[in-house]
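My current task is to audit a protein record that another person submitted. What it holds is a sequence and that sequence's fold in C-alpha cell form. Thanks in advance; the entry in question is below.
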Amino acid sequence: MAFNSINRTDVPMIEICDLEKRFGHLQVLNKINLKVNPKEVLVIIGPSGSGKSTLLRCINHLEEPTGGKIFFEGTLINDSKKNHKAFERHINQIRCRLGMVFQQFNLFPHMTVLENVMEAPVHVLKQNKSEVRDRAIALLDKVGLMDKTGAYPGMLSGGQQQRVAIARALAMEPKAMLFDEVTSALDPELVGDVLRVMEDLARDGMTMLVVTHEMGFAEKVGDRVIFMADGVVVEDAPPHEIFASPKEKRTKLFLAEVLK
C-alpha cells in the first residue's frame, strides 16, 4: 500500500550504480543498481548475510564502497577525488540529511530522552536550543513518548528506546531515512509500536529504505520490495507481486520459509 504519490520524473533521492563492497576476498555486494524516488518506501528483504545491512551502511558511508557510485539528490556521495578533510566534511553534511536508525539503540545513557533528541541539532548543526527543544518535544509526542522526556534510556523498554532513536534521527530534519532491522532486537510485543511510527513516517511522505524481517510491514507499507541474496538484487517488484507471485526461484524459497 503506497501512502504517497511518487513523482518519478524527479531526480532520484538515492541512486546506486554498480555498487561493490568486499571485505578481503569476500564479495558482500556485487554490482548493485538501485534508484529510490522522493517519498518512496523501499523495503529490503533477504536471508542473513545477503548484504542488506552493508548496502545501507555504504549509502551512509559507514562502510566505504569498494567500487561503484552512490548519489544523494543528484550529488555523488563517494567522491574519492576530494582530499581527506574535504571528503569528511562532505560525508558529514550528507549524514545530516540522511538519517539512520540501527538495530541497537545507541542512546547516550547519561542523558535524558529529551537531551538525547536535542544533542545533535544543538551541537552539530548549531541550532537555537529553544527551537530545538520545541521540535524535540513535538517529535517525542509524534512517537508516543511525550511523558518520557525526563526519563533516562535505562528506564525505558527496548521499544521505547528505539522510538527515541527514531525521534533523535528525525530531529536532524533528514530528507531520507535508513532503517537497519530496527525491530530485530525487540521482544515481539514491542515491535508493533515501532512499526506504527515507521508507518506514520511513510504516510507523511518520508523517503525510506527499510531492511526488515517484518513481512507484514513490507507488504503493507512498501512501495517496492527488493529481495537480496549473495550480494545481489535477485528481484525488485511491488509488494503484491513479490508476495503473491514472485518470479525468481530463490525468492520463492525464501518466502516459503519465512511465511510458513
